[in-house]
Amino acid sequence: MAWLYLLVAGLFEIGWAIGLKYTHGFTRLLPTLFTLASMIVSLGMLGLALKSLPVGTAYAVWTGIGTIGTAILGIVLLGESAAVLRLACIGLIVAGIVGLKLVSP
Predict the structure, then answer these.
(1) Cα(53)–Cα(79) distance, rounded to whole angstroms?
(2) 3-state class of 50 per DSSP?
């Protein structure tokens, strides 16, 4: 169950990272509320996951999910670079997350 909490936490981290872009410096109410709610859910789920997962593993996976998702949505939604080297680096992050999952309880 802890891994499920961690996955949800990572998905909500993507939500607040992308949400920050749409708040325009916290000047737009709805995106700001969405972003703040995503932050709360993300941290809450991370806290639940940390009850049984090692902190180093959980934090690395949480930030990795957020990094990968945010980078992909940046490419899809915001027109950021999809250069081969950038995609390869994202792939390395995925490999690191998979490796951590394989060696953790």
Answers:
(1) 36
(2) coil
